[in-house]
Amino acid sequence: MQPFLDGLRQLLGPADLLTDPADMAPYLTDWRRMFSGPALAILRPGSTEQVSAAVGLCAQHGVAIVPQGGNTGLAGGATPLGRAPQVVLSLARMTAIGTPDPIGMVIEAQAGCILQRVKEVAADCGRQLPISLAAEGSATVGGVIATNAGGVNVLRYGMARDFVLGLEVVLPDGTVVKGLKPLRKDNAGFDWKHLFIGSEGAFGIVTAAVLRLTPATRHRSVALLSVQDLPAATRLLGLFQDRIGETLSAFELISADAIRLVETQCGLGAPVSGGNWFLLVEAASSLDGLPAAVQATLEAAYEAGLLQDGTLAASEQQAQSLWALRKHVTEAESRCGKSLKHDVSLPLRRMGAFLESIQARLAGLAPAARLNIFGHLGDGNLHVNVVLGDTPLSIASRITGMVHDLVAEAGGSISAEHGLGQYRLADWQRLTPKTERDLAIDIKRAMDPKGLMNPGKAVPGTSHRQ
Ligand code: FAD
Ligand code: MLT
Ligand code: ZN
Predict the structure, then answer these.
(1) What is the pTM of this model?
(2) If DSSP states are collapsed to H, E and C, what string results for 63-126?
(3) What is the CATH topology of the domain spanning 106-215?
(4) If both were cysteines, with which of 155, 225, 285, 427 could 279 make a disulfide (CB 3.0 to 4.6 Å apart)?
């Protein structure tokens, strides 16, 4: 492998080819320290041309590539797997952001740009990029696109896929495809960029994108509410949809246990009590009259007996403190030791029975474990996470298998927004019809015949084709 590493060093310069174990360590373990794996080196290219040349060298030497952005992914997609020769290719140095076009409402950014920074640049010209996640201060444009990230505003604006107008990618042989057109409409042939969105680096490397912006909203109303049970939460969602639906931008569910975790682990306090479930509701508009409409909706909810308690933020500062409770759930959970993430979506009408079954089965399987349930109820997507406590890690796959079986029985998805990564791939294979599995493998074979792009993540290897 020495000629290979020498070639990379010549290409990238010694500072951007990391081979020292201490320098490599942060790139070889995920944010939650659930996954880790070895690599020959970490590559930190600074341009699309360097990505292309580095990928070409890897193809020539049969070395696999694990693309990595902010390393905030929750499915082990950016962590090397297995012992085959592989490198991590970090996009962190590719951070250029183009001047936004406020009339055409687009912005171009390189893959390594931090999401929050792109949002700030868009906001400076009176537009917004409403992809919002608690990890936005570290997650990158490339990672967000590669995972088709969701977040708290999907209810109104859609997932990352809905914001990608143009894409530049490097294919597994090093070819650069420049598709950076800022067009909202383009039906000239099939829309190949969707192959790369949400495929977790299994088909190529995203190096830049043109993203759609939306008009900024001038007013927002944020409320924290508590309800007794899930049927009350879903009825409340219906009420908001009926009365102020087009302004509703977040409808997030947080269990009372999750709120308690945030209070004890992160030192925040919820100004609302009562009820088994909390809801963080946000509405936004540029038109005057939003606060009155939200207030009237809340009064109707009280009259209908749906609410136990609630507060409507009276200032932007209060709105941010309410949001902080929701945004700290993942952090609070991680402070409780190992946990298993279950990122499920299912029809809302099945959610209640599904959660009851999980509670009952978990009590039998792992009495020391605790459920941490929260997520994007408005999208039918909940994070049904299991904090393991003293539960042995050896039964982790049984717990996850049990949850995923129940998701499949309810006609849901085992990954609503985080992707399969290495974590969910085996269960996806187990629960997905053969025709769909074979289709994924055939596309992988066509795109990446040598199987060098992020092996073991998102798509099964070609040996699994039956
Ligand atoms: P990484 O973690 O580096 O990589 C993720 C995957 O994308 C890997 O498979 C990697 O190989 C691939 N990849 C990365 N960059 C590229 C590229 N340029 N080209 C090709 N492939 C690439 N996710 C949600 O969907 N919704 C949420 O609400 C949400 N909240 C979160 C909250 C917290 C506190 C944390 C820690 C994570 C959260 N996530 C959420 C998960 C994560 O932030 C997202 O998946 C994010 O999109 C990952 O971006 P990243 O740059 O960190 O990617
Ligand atoms: C979130 O919605 O905050 C994350 O996607 C969930 C998680 O940490 O499981
Ligand atoms: Zn989420």
Answers:
(1) 0.98
(2) CEEEEECCCCCCCCCCCCCCCCCEEEEECCCCCCECCCECCCCEEEEECCCEHHHHHHHHHHCC
(3) 3.30.465
(4) 225
